[in-house]
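Board notes (copied after class):
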Amino acid sequence: MIVPLAIICILLLTVIAQKSFNKFIELERKKVAHQWHLEKTKKEIPSKNTEEPRDFPNATADYEGVGVLFEKQEQSFYIAEVIIGSPADKAGVKIGDRIISVDGKYVLGLDKYEVSELLKGESDTKATMDIYRDSFGENSQKFEIVRAPIDLSANRAFHEFYATGKGGKDLGNNYIAYNNLVFYADPNSQTYGTDPHVSKKRLTMEADGLITFSGNDCWQKNKLNPRKRNVCLPPNQDGLKEELNYETCINFAKNKNKVFRNAKELQGADPASFELLEERNEVKYSKDKNHVYYINQIIAGADPASFEIISREYTKDKNHVYYLADQLEDADPASFEVVSKIYGKDKNNVYLEQYKVRGADPETFEVTKKERVAKDANAYYLGARKVDYKEFIEELNKEEDFIH
C-alpha cells in the first residue's frame, strides 16, 4: 500500500502545482494587459475640448444595462457617450474613459459585441467596471454600477437635434443651445448650405448667461448668407472675371467663465473684460485686461492698455511692434510706419513681415507696384533678399498673377 499512496501524493502535488502555475500565468497575463492599457492610455485618450456625438445606429431601442455607448480604437475601448441619468452617469463615468475590464474580464482583444454583452444585464445586478482616466495618474479605478432599465428617448432626441436641429434654440451667430449645452454650427462646412445642423461642435460651456456677438454685427447683417467676400477667380475664355460675393463671419460667445472664438476656446481669456478690437467681419484682434489675442493666440508681451492696430498685419504698443502675433526685433514703436502689406520700417530698420531686411535704408526704402519687389538708394530687393538690377527688372516686368 505504500507505493499507491506515494503515487496518489505525487498526483495531488502535480494537480496543485498545475493550478498554482495556471493562476500565476493568469495573474501575469492580467498584469501585462493592465500595464499595456495604462501605457497606451496617455497617448490615445480622446480630446475633451469638444465632444462630438458619434453615430450609433444600433442604439435605438431601450435595454437593461449600465447606460454607456463606447467605441473601439485599435484594441482599446473608450466611453463615447454616457446616457443622461443612467447608472453609469450617476456613478461618475465620463466620456473619454478607457474601459480596462468588466467584472474582472479584460476587454483587450475582445470585439464590440462581447464588450456590449459584458455591460448589459438584468436590472439590479451589479457590474464592476475597471476604468482608466488621465486624471487618475498611474492607476485605474473600479466603478461599482447597478444595472437598470436604460431609457434612450432623451438620447434619441439629442441625436435628432444633432442631425436636424429639432429642439435646439438659436442663440445667434451660429451658436445653438440644447438642454443648456452649447454647440457651434460651422458655416465653413461643405454641408452648411443644405443643412446647417450637420457640422456642429459641442463647446465646454453652459448656455446659461451666454452672450454671442461678432465684429460689425456680421451675422445680423447676413443671416441668409453669412459668407460674403469679393473673390477674384481666373479669367474665363473671353477674358472676363467672375465674382463671387460671400462673407466670412468670425463669431464669439462668452459666459461668466469662458470665451470662445467660433468653436475654439480662448485659453485664459477673462470674460468680464474681453472685447473686440476691430469692427470687421473677420475679427483677428481682441483683448482682455491681461492679454492681447491674434485669432486664438496670445501675443506674448503685448500691453493691452496701449495696444493699437496700425494695419491688418502690423500692430504696436508702448514697448514693441508686432507682425500678426510675432514681435519685431529692435523695432521702435514711436517711429514705426507701414510701407505695404508685408513691409514696415522705423528710423533704424526695414522689416519684411517680422524679419529685418539687412542693410536696407529706411529713409529711401520704397515698394514698387509688385508687393515683394522693393528698392532703396543703395540696392534692389526681392522680399528680404538683395538682387541685382537685371533680376529686379525681370521680377518687376513679370505678369501679375490672376488669382489674388
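Comment from the instructor: Residues 24-163 form a domain with the Pdz3 Domain fold (CATH 2.30.42.10). Residues 2-44 form the longest helix (43 residues).
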